[in-house]
Amino acid sequence: MAVGAPSLSAARMGLRFLSTNKDLPGGYTDAVSFRQALSMGLAPDAGLFMPERIPVFTTSQLEGLRQAPYATVAAAVLDLFLGDELGPSVISSICQDAYNFPVPLEPCTPDAPLTGQASRAQPGAGNSTFILRLDQGPTASFKDFAARFMARAMERLCERDLTVLVATSGDTGSAVGAAFAGMKGARVYILYPAHGVSDVQRQQLDRCGDNVTALAIDGTFDDCQALAKQAFALSHDDTLSPLARIGLTSANSINIGRVLPQVAYHVYAWLQTGAPVMLIPSGNFGNALGAEIARRMGLPFQRIIVAVNSNDAFPAYLQSGIYRKVSPSKECISNAMNVGHPSNLARFIHLYGGIMDKEGLIHQMPDLAGMRRDLWSVSISDEETIAAMRRAWQGTMPGLPKGTLLEPHGAVGIAALEQYRELYGPCNAVVLETAHPAKFPEAMEKALGHAPRPPEALERMMRRPARVRRMANDIESLIAELTRP
Ligand SMILES: *Cc1c(COP(=O)(O)O)cnc(C)c1O
After folding, report:
1. What is the pTM of this model?
2. In order of start, what are the domains of the chain with their CATH numbers?
3. What's the pLDDT tens digit per position in 85-101?
């Protein structure tokens, strides 16, 4: 555990991390190491940690990675941020161990150039659609990418037992639970909305491992997130709280240890395709933030498209310049994106020179013109989502071959791409498919009339014993659960 403990020797001090609230009155102005930021989760001023600067790839570094396997690309990305602090060999071994599953990229247009020479030479040319399937990890969602790196980093860096608390709208919880399952000295608690996840997601959440307890709440995902934030605040600020003793660690996308590994697949996608447009189905914006950071590392993305469901706070903000969170958040079939106030938005605002606090209040305006130049965002309804799934399957979605299987989150991305092309014309684009279709059998049935079989890893998980408790939606109940002997 790093807070207050002697840190690594000065020679191993790397990039520092700062709170997004540091310039507000009472802001936390310390520059902390990755190890400190990782174990603190949230900064003491309720801000989010961000790297003090974004390292940039040289052309030859990128060139050297062109044919590299995923784990190598991930290690190269993380090395630029964390190499000085963790050492390249530690990063490399964590990545080799964490990324032991395929990362398939489907060229959806028959003539799509997979190594991207043509499109790299003329980034504007072409109209190919690539689908990057991030669903081959142990819990079949892209959350595995971040969770598996973060769990291994915490295991190596934290010197005392860990109590990890994570609020989830579906996939984060199981990815984090599975990443820590069986890890000695780690206890994990997952808060989830009892009625806000699919049956498959629930079964996964309840069955991560013996050291992982699911807490099902009568409330929304926003309630879960608010409870987790309250618990972290108590454990940091209130020395009398029983939570101060156990030292909580956050594994939500607010933890910088979740953000950095999510940069890597955007880099990987570009290396493979040269496509200048990235389509990100988004909820808490951790994934989109990964793309934004990749762009700032030197990847020539023309547009990062933040595709949301009916929770449209961000597209409305880009359009009007006025931010209003959606409260309560809307229930959509792409349920991992049912977020009324994206927790990573403060980091975007920070990167564009603004300050947004945790309530979503903007204290300093970001460069809105810059955001509008680099980003585009659109809200996709459930009807449009279902229609996109159906048309992709039937072969009537331009650019996708018949039989393309999309689950609701990826379908939001595809539908957004279609609208983007209508407005801005043809472009080569990568759409992230963020989960395996078998995780959403009800939605698949509704759209296609059938549901695909779960992958083997998912079936294995479903056979484990359940470990779940129902919990009232209040902080006292949460404290009682977390401090249970
Ligand atoms: C978490 C999740 C998202 C949203 O990702 P953010 O990083 O929170 O924007 C999209 N799709 C699936 C399947 C998810 O689990």
Report:
1. 0.91
2. 102-140+257-448 (3.40.50.1100)
3. 999 999 999 999 999 99
